[in-house]
Amino acid sequence: MKPKVLIGITGGIAAYKVAEITSQLVKAKVNVRVVMTEAATKFITPLTFSALSQQKVLTSIFPNSPSGEKDVIYPHLYPATEADAFVVIPATANAIAKLANGFGDDIVCCSALSIKSDCKRIFCPAMNVQMWEQAVVRENVKKLNQFGWHQIGPEKGRLACGTSGYGRMSSPSAITQIILSSIF
What we know:
By secondary structure, the chain is of the alpha/beta class. The protein is 36% helix and 20% strand. The longest helix has 12 residues, at 135-146.
């Protein structure tokens, strides 16, 4: 049986890099599902991830219709409860704060609240260097680590906003390798 990875995409410019990760995971025979915040859909469309994963992408905790498959009726539960690994990428300062404090007001964070206790939890920070250096962001990252989340990055380098420093998302290939090693 193929391992199941749920990717939660949040609203950061690095969201476009998740397409490569999705493609690499599918090539490695992983069943990939994607959930996206509304903000994420401003950077890259759900259609990209539907095409790469051959799966429907969920963007809301509210069902589109009152009947149908379980991910239509209960998008906040499925596919989250079936995932072997849940990866939040890019993990923005906003998403990290919500995850660290148990908020479930979007499909990504609500999915995080619905995963099984033995599901691997991974987050990949990506943000501006000044945001990364904020004490509250560091405190939220520390909380996630204490809750059993595995952190990948960020790395130091040139950022989309033109500054340089820590905040750059780790490379798609490095992230893919860590995901694969956590599920195989």
